[in-house]
Design goal:
By secondary structure, the chain is mainly alpha-helical. The protein has a domain at 23-63. 51% of the residues lie in helices and 0% in strands. The chain has helices at residues 2-12, 25-37, 54-61. It is elongated and about 40 Å long. The protein starts with a helix and ends with a helix.
């Protein structure tokens, strides 16, 4: 798995610690939304567009 993270990090020009693999984007997005849900404050905004896939938008409505 480490070699895959290194290859993706090289492709995206980022650090391998910034690469995450998961079951699918929906599961990863929901996990991310739960993580930031503990930190978000009244008045904070989450910006999405009509171009975003529902998997990237729907978790925001649960916050």
């Amino acid at each position: 798995m480490i070699s895959a993270r290194i290859a993706i990090a090289d492709f995206w020009s980022c650090d391998r610690n910034e690469v995450v693999f998961g079951a699918n984007i929906t599961s990863l997005t929901f996990a991310f939304s739960r993580a930031i849900g503990r930190e978000i404050q009244l008045g904070d905004e989450i910006i999405v567009t009509k171009l975003d896939h529902d998997a990237n938008v729907a978790p925001s409505y649960a916050l």
